Fold this protein.
Amino acid sequence: MAESAGGEAVDGDFQPFTFSIVGVQKAGTSTLQWMLNQHPQVARPPRKEMGWFDVDEATWRDVDHASYGVRRTSPQQRALGDATPRYLLMPGTLERMRDRLPDLRLIAIFRDPIDRLVSQWVMVRERQPDKAPDWPEMMAWRPPSFPTILPEELTGPGGRARFLRASGVVRGYYGGQVEHGLTVFPRDQWLFLDFPSLLADHARHLDLVTDHIGVDRFRSHPPLKKLMAGSPTITGTAPTGEDLMTLARALEPELAQYVALTGLPVEHWTTERLLRGDLDADEQAATYAAKAGLA
């Protein structure tokens, strides 16, 4: 008999979760999950985003942790993971994961933080044009550092939802996120990836991922599919060049810390190019507006 995530005895057909794609939103997590689902040694989760560990504390305590897994459909299966990009973001989440699954293998994919923010804004505006935050609100909350606990002004009823709504820029505080992650789980349980590099050479990156989660490399790599993509037209307030430079300057120390901790490149990122002066902020803002159907 094996043990489930909560320590309960389960039979040998039960496959517990062994890895998690923890972030970041709008950086290829769906694509990577889809490719891993094609692997014969990887069991499929019930859905892409289990959201198991980022719910509020009271709800999380009441969950039946024995169900955090699936029945194997093949004797080859020995790994299982989901992709919940909020895990890297939400205060307390990684700590919960460590307490229940201390050997979990973690994967985080990073994308230029301004590109990521714009993509999130377009997505939520397309889905809920009358309720989703517009651009000024998306970029408004810029705390001095990455919050590892729920900020006092966001505690109380509905605090989790208010944090998620306000966290557009904070989701790009990659230096703080990585630093916090490394205090919770040891470095050898982490794999950090660059989204554009994944798109440019997905076979090599899939080899890194399968090595990391402890399954054989693909004999034939699945094709790269860009999931969750589209050509939306939204309503709202388009970003300005001044907005982009405000964000770039706020994110500059985060980028430096991110590079120091991960060793991943950022020279090709929009934020870094804006800071270097290699990219005109007004032209980039116009590009964003055109892609959102606002030009």
